[in-house]
Design brief:
By secondary structure, this protein is of the alpha+beta class. The protein is built from 12 helices and 16 strands. Helix 1 packs across helix 3, helix 6 runs antiparallel to helix 7 and helix 8 runs antiparallel to helix 9. The chain is elongated. The two termini are 54 Å apart. It holds the Pfam family LisH. Belongs to the RANBP9/10 family. This is Ran-binding protein 10.
């Protein structure tokens, strides 16, 4: 049965069995890994608390990290009990430990509890959250990006050594919980099942916070519940109440009277941004809007896009410098990427020219795009010796039956403006290839371009 549970745990979240290198060297590390795998079974109570968390990407905190604690602490009982073993002479003897993983942003509301097994000599304990880089030689809340509720004075500390009065003190046999509301970025605490209210607002959403507990004097012992068993505080009611508040705020949100105008502007800006010139003009005419960008500018951007997709990088750079003379001077990364692409096109062309060509196969490689200048529009006689841009059958037919131009561009390019006559594009922005190979001796292409 143990083997089946381990197998289920591995399939559910392989990262649940991850241990640090320092843990791997400790006695019992393998057993701890097996116990953690058991927690990842289908009936995992922690997973039920946070159904929207994908633990293959963002694992949940499940135990204290033996490799992320100060050396005055001893972690036992499946890494859920913390005991202080330092001298405890002053604040410099404080020690903290962090959980094995940070709190995932998709939790909505995250919560854990500690039970004070013994307050020790003085009961200088703290429970809270901290970032990975915060010192472990301090109680939570004393340093930047650290938050903590302390047992001896009931103060809450937020990135400072000066606390503010928050709640009652706590001691042996008390159960204290810490909750992190990722919806409104607030921290709250509970004591023996009672919500003490919000301790801090405006936690930066960019912070990656770990559950943290700190001890400072000899004899202090705490047990931890990350959700392996029912909490003393009814966190489910808190989660449901928060969900109802969020839903109510959405349903009660009043759209402005100009909502139709706002939506029309949004659609128009999308069309303009992607270069759908004709569509944008028609849409703006229908909705009585003024075009944000003139047609000439949209067309220019569209032509530059086509040049890049067809591998004509030199021409694209030249056109950008003519129309937007300061763009490449102020955006060096863009110029660098274009130059790199131009170099790739040149190498591809050299490789193509060195490869032997079969007499029955006159097409150039679809991965090659010659970086020469665009020629003027071909004459009708020239078109007779070019490949058709699109083929729908493998049977040979005369070139007169095939359209001489195509407006088909893949990869998000606009369909409003036609491509250059007689130029085949494979629709891939990855290689941006074009095919201008002439058909020799009047022969027809042997099959559709793949």
């Amino acid at each position: 049965m143990m083997e089946n549970m381990l197998a289920t745990g591995n399939n559910t979240r392989s990262s649940g069995a991850m241990i640090s290198s320092s843990q791997a060297d400790e006695p019992g590390a393998m057993m701890e890994a097996e116990e953690r795998d058991e927690l990842n079974s289908i009936d995992d109570p922690i997973k039920k608390l946070y159904p929207f968390v994908d633990e293959t990407k963002t694992p949940l905190p499940r135990f204290w990290n033996n490799g992320d604690k100060y050396n005055y602490l001893i972690v036992t009982n499946q890494n859920l009990r913390v005991t202080y073993r330092g001298a405890g002479k002053n604040h410099k003897d404080a020690a903290a430990v962090r959980a094995n993983f940070p709190i995932p942003a998709t939790c909505g509301i995250y919560y854990f509890e500690i039970t004070i097994v013994s307050k020790g000599r003085d009961g200088y304990m703290g429970i809270g959250l901290s970032e990975k880089e915060v010192s472990l030689n301090r109680l939570p809340g004393w340093d930047r990006n650290s938050y903590g509720y302390h047992a001896d004075d009931g103060n809450f500390f937020s990135s400072s050594g000066n606390g503010t009065q928050y709640g009652p003190t706590f001691t042996t046999n008390d159960v204290v919980g810490c909750g992190y509301n990722l919806i409104d970025n607030s921290i709250f605490y509970t004591k023996n099942g009672q919500n003490l209210g919000v301790a801090f607002h405006d936690v930066p959403s960019t912070e990656e916070l770990y559950p943290t507990v700190g001890l400072q004097t000899p004899g202090e012992i705490v047990d931890t519940n990350f959700g392996q068993k029912p909490f003393v505080f009814n966190i489910q009611d808190e989660i449901k109440a928060t969900e109802m508040r969020v839903q109510a705020s959405i349903f009660n949100y009043q759209l402005p009277a100009t909502k139709t105008e706002w939506m029309n502007k949004l659609v128009s800006s999308y069309l303009v941004h992607h270069g759908f010139c004709s569509t944008a003009e028609s849409f703006n005419l229908t909705t009585n809007q003024r075009t944000v960008e003139d047609t000439a500018s949209m067309t220019n951007r569209q032509q530059i896009q086509k040049l890049v997709l067809n591998g004509h990088i030199a021409e694209a750079i030249e056109m950008v410098e003519q129309i937007y003379p300061m763009l490449l001077h102020t955006n060096k990364p863009l110029l660098f990427m274009l130059k790199c692409r131009q170099f790739i096109e040149m190498l591809a062309q050299v490789t193509q020219e060195r490869e032997p060509r079969s007499s029955s196969h006159h097409r150039s490689s679809p991965t090659c795009s010659p970086p020469y200048k665009l020629s003027k529009r071909p004459s009708p006689n020239d078109r007779e010796h070019r490949l058709s841009p699109r083929r729908t059958t493998r049977s040979p037919r005369s070139h007169e039956d095939t359209p001489s131009s195509s407006g088909h561009i893949s990869n998000g390019a606009s369909h409003d403006e036609p491509m250059e006559d007689g130029v085949y594009t494979n629709g891939s922005a990855a290689n941006g290839s074009s095919n201008n190979t002439a058909v020799k001796n009047g022969s027809q292409p042997d099959e559709e371009m793949g």
